[in-house]
């Protein structure tokens, strides 16, 4: 499964979802295809889901909201572990990703 | 009649050397691209003085770019047909931004209602509450999340002035923002 635009790419490898590029969604609705992709991974009921954001250089607030909503969806499945992989080298990730743990304390946030 | 929301002391005239960019009206898809191009340009310009430190440069460039992008995106989404004026300046402590555009009277009222809700209280609590409410009821929309993200994650201080526009059906909105440069170094 892959979503590709001029600015960003999202694809899955097993239950790991990779994000690459600069994502400036015009609204939460603009990310519907990404939400659908992530929801399909969740529906397969894996032991864990990883959001790999290490190559996502920019994400606007609509995109951050999309990640937050998906985190809340995963929270409804206590048997599914959510791992979020980011990097301290990309400032938006250090600033905004810790908020996901406030929504779902069981999120494993790996900033390496 | 002028109405103010947010931190009053930053809603004053921009100081000495101000850089100004004017975005003309156009189709949404093109305007959306202008948000990215303009915010990257302003961020590049103002981060230049931090070139000597790679970390500072990356932080400052990102924070300015994020702030400018969010506020221009809002202006592009909600403006009445017409231009958007972006003014920016920086001193040793803060990067300051002012975004001016007209909106329809109805949109101005809705926006004022939103601002009344999100400018009082702790931004972290408000951000989490809004995300939860939005997830529980998709019809609520994501409104205000960008502004709360700026306040909470970027330490932005924000203010808005609404005043009568030349066209009587419209309201002129000036959005003021200030982010501390010293805090960016952290």
Structure description:
The complex is a heterodimer of chains A (112) and B (186). In chain A, a hairpin with a 3-residue loop joins strand 1 and strand 2. Chain A has a six-stranded mixed beta sheet with strand order 1-2-3-4-5-6. In chain A, helix 1 runs parallel beside helix 2. Chain A contains four helices and six strands; from the N terminus they run βββαβαβααβ. Chain A has a single domain, classed as Transcription Regulator spoIIAA, CATH 3.30.750. Chain B is α+β, with helices and mostly antiparallel strands. Chain B has a single domain, classed as Heat Shock Protein 90, CATH 3.30.565. Helix content of chain B is 47%, strand content 25%. A six-stranded antiparallel beta sheet of chain B has the order 1-5-6-4-3-2. In chain B, helix 2 runs antiparallel to helix 5. Classes of the chains: A alpha/beta (112), B alpha+beta (186). At the A-B interface, helix 2, helix 3 and helix 4 of A face helix 1, helix 2, helix 4 and helix 5 of B.
Concise account of the structure shown:
The complex is a heterodimer of chains A (112) and B (186). Chain A is an alpha/beta fold.
DSSP strand tally of chain A: 6
Radius of gyration of chain A: 13 Å
Portion of residues within helices of chain A? 25-40%
Strand content of chain A: 25-35%
State the end-to-end CA separation of chain B: 41 Å
Write out the CATH superfamily name of chain A. STAS domain
Number of distinct helices of chain A: 4
The CATH topology of chain A, please? Transcription Regulator spoIIAA
- What value does the Rg of chain B take, in angstroms? 16 Å
């Amino acid at each position: 499964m892959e979503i590709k635009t001029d600015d960003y790419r999202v694809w899955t490898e097993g239950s790991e979802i990779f994000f690459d590029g600069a994502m400036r969604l015009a609204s939460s609705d603009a990310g519907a295809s990404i939400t659908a992709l992530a929801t399909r991974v969740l529906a397969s009921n894996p032991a864990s889901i990883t959001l790999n954001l290490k190559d996502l250089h920019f994400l606007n607030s609509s995109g951050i909201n999309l990640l937050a909503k998906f985190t809340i969806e995963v929270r409804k499945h206590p048997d599914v572990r959510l791992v979020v992989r980011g990097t301290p080298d990309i400032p938006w990730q250090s600033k905004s990703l810790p908020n996901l743990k406030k929504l779902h304390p069981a999120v494993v946030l790996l900033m390496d | 009649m002028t109405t103010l929301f947010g931190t009053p002391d930053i809603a004053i005239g921009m100081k000495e050397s101000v850089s100004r960019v004017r975005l003309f009206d156009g189709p949404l898809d093109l305007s959306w691209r202008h948000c990215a191009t303009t915010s990257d340009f302003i961020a590049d310009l103002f981060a230049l003085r931090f070139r000597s430190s790679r970390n500072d440069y990356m932080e400052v460039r990102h924070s300015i770019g994020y702030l400018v992008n969010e506020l221009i995106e809002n202006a592009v989404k909600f403006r009445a047909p017409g231009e958007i004026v972006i003014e920016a300046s920086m001193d040793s402590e803060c990067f300051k931004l002012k975004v001016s555009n007209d909106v329809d009277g109805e949109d101005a009222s809705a926006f004022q209602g939103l601002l009344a809700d999100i400018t009082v209280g702790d931004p972290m609590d408000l951000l989490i509450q809004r995300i939860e409410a939005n997830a529980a009821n998709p019809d609520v929309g994501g409104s205000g999340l960008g502004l709360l993200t700026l306040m909470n994650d970027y330490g932005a201080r924000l203010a808005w002035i609404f005043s009568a526009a030349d066209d009587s059906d419209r309201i002129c909105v000036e959005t003021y923002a200030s982010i501390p440069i010293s805090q960016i170094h952290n």
